[in-house]
Write a structure and sequence with these properties.
Structural class of chain B: alpha/beta
Helix content of chain B: 25-40%
Strand order of the largest sheet of chain B: 3-2-4-7-1-8-11-10-9
Radius of gyration of chain A: 22 Å
Radius of gyration of chain B: 19 Å
Largest interface: A-B, 52 and 58 residues
Low-confidence stretches of chain A: none
Mean pLDDT of chain A: 95
Distance between the termini of chain B: 21 Å
Structural class of chain A: mainly beta
Strand content of chain B: 15-25%
Distance between the termini of chain A: 61 Å
Oligomer: heterodimer
Number of strands of chain A: 10
Shape of chain B: globular
Strand content of chain A: 25-35%
Shape of chain A: extended
CATH class of chain B: Alpha Beta
Low-confidence stretches of chain B: none
CATH architecture of chain B: 3-Layer(aba) Sandwich
Helix content of chain A: under 10%
Number of domains of chain B: 1
Mean pLDDT of chain B: 95
Largest sheet of chain A: 5 strands, antiparallel
Strand order of the largest sheet of chain A: 8-7-4-9-10
Order of helices and strands of chain B: EHEHEHEHHHHEEEHEHHEHHHHEE
Number of strands of chain B: 11
């Protein structure tokens, strides 16, 4: 097999042996939050976590949604859930979103929210916990921003901590 | 399933996989297509339609990549399309090629998948932020390692799997890739070296992650009538399947890829495969991370739930084992130019089933194989079964 493809190195680029051009697209967006997530974020601003319940599927989900994607019906009820939950899974991550190494690890977790159906969680962060002591199944509670600091965003919850 | 015609793979080609290629995406696609055409002794004039696969535009910073890649893909003045299901694209694209021909509309189809991830600076990881939900997840600044680490941890927890069980996949695939002439990361590596490599996102270690890569692959498909005129050794596509689970990934069972099982069952039913463990000779499941090979072997019904690590420990999945898995070296060893990596697996089955895999040839004259890719937001399985 005769293979094509020319591997190049940083030196090839730095020395000018291989040329490149640059671009830096600045694309900015505003996203309307819609019916389901809009109400979810409105709840977070008030310090409350909402889910939606589909009567037909008997399933309470979070993040909430305007329609049940299983039975494909908009016949849903809004439910006020607790701001506590259980760690479904977690990681101890030493890399930032843009691949930089960090000394203090991020502690992302999927947290099953109390009041939602089993196995239904959200992505969020853990803190105020020794990473070595985090366990799947651990009970955690939301740590909220102060009311005046909340903007109606997932970050209105600063993180979850064991309780 | 109501399909009209049989479809064969009659040619395959690829470029080297590398961290950064001098070639542009178009040039990479051209080289893979040229190699595939040459392998089948065909010209572009023999091609009725072209299917292109490539992952998110954000890596290249080039909008409408399908249009941009048209010329390198050989799509000039032909029925041409771009197919896309994230990381699952590399096996999805040949599925699309399959139904272009099985429908009776075309006699031949060229399928080319290309990825050039190195353009994204300082690291393509930054582009992955945009795959997460824009309102409920992106503000938390997630990176791609998170979802793999979260899924791997849940998988290990559910079945009591140890790190060394997973590290064995890296050892196997990186050593397999030593024999692949296009490989980026083939190397002799020991279990301890994998386990002692840097922790990126616990439980994911550096040597359990595939690299970012540039590269391209292509295959040529033909109807039964045409295939027999093109080559005495066609490799038949016997089954295709694809399936997507909900995009609410934090609501899913992260320990088991049900959507992969659904896709596999669709392909096996079409292929008449009732006992995949006995009837499949070679498997090329998607292995961007070491645990994913195990996860996918279970989804493909080639191992019972939680039992894929034991197959690996027992040597069953070694190149010389009863069920060789990723004899190519996989994404962990050959590299992971996303869409091209999935199609590389289909190329590997083509070469293995024709006895053309050289130093990495699986012994025992294999007759059947399955290739699978996975992607979008951890929710799509794409599956192809083949036989010679």
């Amino acid at each position: 097999m005769h293979l094509k493809g020319t591997a190049i190195s940083k030196q090839d680029l730095d020395s000018g042996k291989v040329l490149f051009t640059r671009g830096d697209p600045h694309a900015h967006y505003t996203w309307d939050t819609g019916i389901g997530i809009g109400r979810y974020l409105e709840g977070l601003r008030k310090g409350k976590i909402f889910g939606t319940h589909c009567k037909k599927c008997n399933r309470t989900v979070i993040p909430p949604r305007a329609f049940c994607e299983l039975c494909f019906s908009s016949n849903i009820e809004w439910r006020h859930l607790k701001d506590t939950g259980v760690i479904n899974t977690f990681s101890i991550c030493y890399v930032s979103w843009d691949a930089q190494r960090v000394q203090t690890p991020y502690l992302p977790a999927v947290i099953e929210i109390d009041g939602a159906s089993k196995g239904h969680g959200i992505l969020h962060l853990l803190d105020e916990v020794d990473p070595k002591l985090i366990r799947i199944g651990m009970k955690v509670k939301a740590v909220w921003k102060r009311p005046e600091e909340r903007t109606g965003a997932i970050t209105d919850i600063q993180y979850f901590k064991p309780y | 399933m109501g399909t009209k015609g049989k479809v064969a793979i009659v040619g395959a080609g690829m470029t080297r996989f590398m961290r950064r290629a001098q070639e542009t995406p178009k040039e990479l696609a051209f080289e893979a297509v040229r190699a595939a055409l040459d392998s089948a002794q065909m010209t572009l004039g023999d091609i009725d339609c072209v299917i292109h696969g490539t992952a998110p535009d954000a890596f290249d910073g080039i909008h409408m990549k399908g249009e941009y890649l048209l010329d390198g893909s050989g799509g000039w003045q032909k029925p041409y399309m771009r197919g896309y299901v994230g990381g699952g694209t590399g096996v999805f694209a040949p599925i699309q090629g399959w139904y272009h021909i099985a429908s009776g509309m075309f006699e031949t189809a060229l399928v080319v998948c290309e990825e050039k991830m190195s353009s994204c600076q300082p690291h393509p990881q930054g582009a992955f932020l945009t795959i997460f939900d824009n309102m409920t997840e992106r503000p938390l600044k997630p990176n791609l390692l998170w979802i793999f680490a979260l899924e791997m941890n849940r998988y290990m927890h559910t079945y009591g799997i140890k790190l060394e069980d997973i590290a064995r996949v890296s050892v196997k695939n990186k050593n397999n890739a030593l024999h692949h002439p296009a490989a980026q990361l083939g190397k002799e590596i020991t279990l301890n070296e994998v386990l002692n490599s840097e922790v990126l996102a616990w439980p994911v270690h550096r040597e359990m992650v595939s690299p970012t890569s540039d590269g391209a692959c292509a295959v040529i498909l033909a109807s039964q009538k045409r295939a027999k005129k093109i080559t005495p050794k066609p490799v038949w596509i016997t089954g295709v399947g694809w399936n997507l689970d909900t995009s609410y990934w934090t609501n899913r069972d992260l320990a088991y890829p049900q959507y992969v099982e659904n896709a596999a069952r669709m392909a096996y039913k079409m292929a008449g495969i009732r006992e995949p463990k006995k009837e499949i000779h070679i498997a090329e499941p998607y292995d961007p991370f070491a645990y994913k090979e195990l996860h996918h072997l279970e989804g493909l019904l080639l191992a019972d739930k939680g039992q894929a690590p034991q197959l690996t420990a027992d040597g069953v999945t070694a190149r010389t084992g009863n069920l060789p898995v990723c004899p190519s070296g996989g994404l962990l060893g050959v590299g992971n130019p996303i869409a091209a990596a999935g199609l590389m697996k289909v190329c590997e089955l083509f070469w293995q089933l024709r006895g053309e895999a050289g130093a990495r040839q699986v012994p025992g004259k294999p007759h059947t194989g399955v290739a699978q890719a996975w992607g979008d937001l951890m929710q799509v399985g794409t599956v192809i079964t083949v036989k010679n």
